[in-house]
Amino acid sequence: RFDYDxxxxxxxxxxxxxxYSKYEEYVTFMGQFLTPFVAxxxxxxxxxxxxxxxxxxxxxxENECIWKNEALMGEVKNYLIENFDYYNYCxxxxxTQDDLFVGM
Length: 104
Description:
Layout: H1 23-31, H2 42-45, H3 70-83, H4 85-93
Helix pairs in contact: 3-4
């Protein structure tokens, strides 16, 4: 979980942010730093069969009142920013020099 303590001067990395609507750009950007996993042993080549495990009930945005009420969306956004470090950090970071895509 995100905590502002991660930004302390003791940390040995720089924390960056990006607008989640630019997810595809983020994947492309990270592709230059991450390499695909290549199995080197028979044990590493074994994979378990994927089993879908639904965790949330299906939803319909048309039936959710928040998307039709800009004032309510604003109140929820402000609540998240004021009460959760992660949302506060993202809100403060997007558009700054710590935003991965500023100037792109």
